[in-house]
Design brief:
Blueprint: H1 74-81, E1 88-91, H2 98-107, E2 112-117, H3 120-126, E3 134-138, H4 144-150, E4 159-163, H5 168-172, H6 198-204, H7 207-218, H8 223-232, H9 239-253, H10 256-261, H11 271-282, H12 284-298, E5 304-309, H13 312-326, E6 346-348, H14 358-363, E7 371-377
Parallel strand pairs: 1-2, 1-4, 2-3, 4-5
Antiparallel strand pairs: 5-7, 6-7
Helix pairs in contact: 7-8, 7-11, 8-9, 12-13
Length: about 375
């Protein structure tokens, strides 16, 4: 019997590893898209559906194993962390170690740097690369407080950073199931030691709940049609199958003028759907919310919180969190006296997010959707 899911909660989890800069990301819009799914995609479509075969290998080169990882907005991130020797720092998403190793190098042996990553393979790769003052932790970054407390660390006086989303290494490894450009099993778990795979989710979830996931986390206007076609073609085992289904669904649904007007012509049609499924599998937004709360609580006065996002859902959540933490009163505007007794916890350093420069975008296409925000803990 097929498992039934009861809908998607706001805050359960997306990155933009492949191309998420096309999602609406207005810095002045604080609200996550909440339009009713029935307002979109209400045209009838034929149930006669044929999946065309898509050559996923055409024009694609595998990333060589020795190709260096390029950390996004490295200098800007380090600058916002305000690195100082002798202080403690945390890279909550260690990944390939681009930011982590520079933090350790720039602060010197008198500092202690903690590198956290939920991907065990990333931790194993870093084991032989990090200096003695770096401590590696295999864990979800949402467990930052619990894991550091276990080590006797309760306060971070330097700074905490997070580079969100799927790493280039994960996208390059077909067996991880993150990329629609490489055929492989539908896994999509950032931590392969636990949790539900994308294959299990796609083959058991109710059609309406699947449409809700794709709409909310992928901001995909054709979510209902995509969900219907996915359900019709179960079981789905590979990224190639899923990519082909989505591509054929959108090829029937999107008119050339819509593609031009909405910037869809240059984007792979499966981008939003893969993003949405990955968010649901890894509960990314829910983890981000907990991380932000716990990271701020662990910072000592003067400590910095720096977060690099790659799509609008993440960035909006980070922006709202920083604004809320920076507020000193939440009483109604017309109330003459403050009764909430709320104090500002944070000074926002980046009133507007920093973005990658043109030169970096040319050198590293993933940086084009990056947004960098930071705040400093107050007394």
């Amino acid at each position: 019997m097929r498992a039934k899911r009861t809908g998607v909660r706001h805050g359960d989890g997306v990155d933009g590893g492949e191309s998420l800069d096309d999602v609406d990301d207005s810095d002045d819009d604080d609200s996550v898209q909440t339009d009713n799914l029935s307002d979109y995609d209400n045209e009838d479509s034929s149930s006669d559906f044929h999946v065309e075969t898509i050559d996923l290998s055409s024009g694609i080169e595998s990333r060589p194993d020795n190709r260096p990882h390029i950390p996004v907005m490295l200098e800007e991130t380090l600058g916002l962390l305000n690195l100082q020797p002798g202080k403690t720092y945390v890279d909550a998403t260690a990944g390939a170690g681009g930011h982590l190793l520079r933090i350790a190098s720039d602060t010197g042996s008198t500092s202690t740097v903690y590198g956290i990553d939920r991907d065990l393979s990333a931790i194993e790769r870093l084991q032989g690369l990090v200096p003695d003052n770096v401590k590696l932790i295999h864990s979800n970054y949402s467990e930052i407080r619990e894991k550091l407390n276990e080590l006797g660390v309760h306060t971070i006086d330097g700074g905490i950073m997070a580079d969100l989303g799927v790493s280039s290494m994960q996208l390059d490894e077909a067996h991880r199931g993150f990329s629609f450009m490489r055929n492989g099993p539908l896994d999509m778990r950032m931590d392969q030691s636990r949790g539900e795979t994308a294959e299990n989710l796609l083959n058991t979830i109710d059609e309406r709940d699947l449409a809700d996931i794709i709409f909310r986390y992928g901001e995909e206007r054709f979510a209902r049609r995509i969900a219907r076609d996915i359900v019709q073609h179960r079981p789905i085992k590979t990224t190639g199958q899923l990519s082909a289904i989505v591509a054929n669904t959108l090829r029937k649904s999107q008119k050339p003028k819509y593609k031009r007007d909405h910037g869809e012509a240059s984007k792979h049609p499966a981008t939003r759907t893969f993003q949405a499924i990955r968010i649901a599998v890894n509960q990314e937004l829910q983890c981000l919310e907990k991380f932000l709360e716990d990271a701020l609580s662990m910072l000592a006065p003067g400590g910095r919180l720096v977060v690099l996002t790659f799509h609008s859902l993440e960035d909006r959540l980070v922006k709202q969190f920083l604004r809320s933490a920076a507020m000193s009163c939440v009483c109604p505007p017309r109330q003459p006296l403050c009764t909430c007794n709320k104090k500002s916890q944070l000074l926002i350093i980046t009133r507007k997010p920093l973005v990658a420069g043109a030169e970096e975008v040319l050198a590293n296409v993933r940086s084009r959707s990056a947004k960098l925000r930071a705040g400093q803990k107050l007394d």
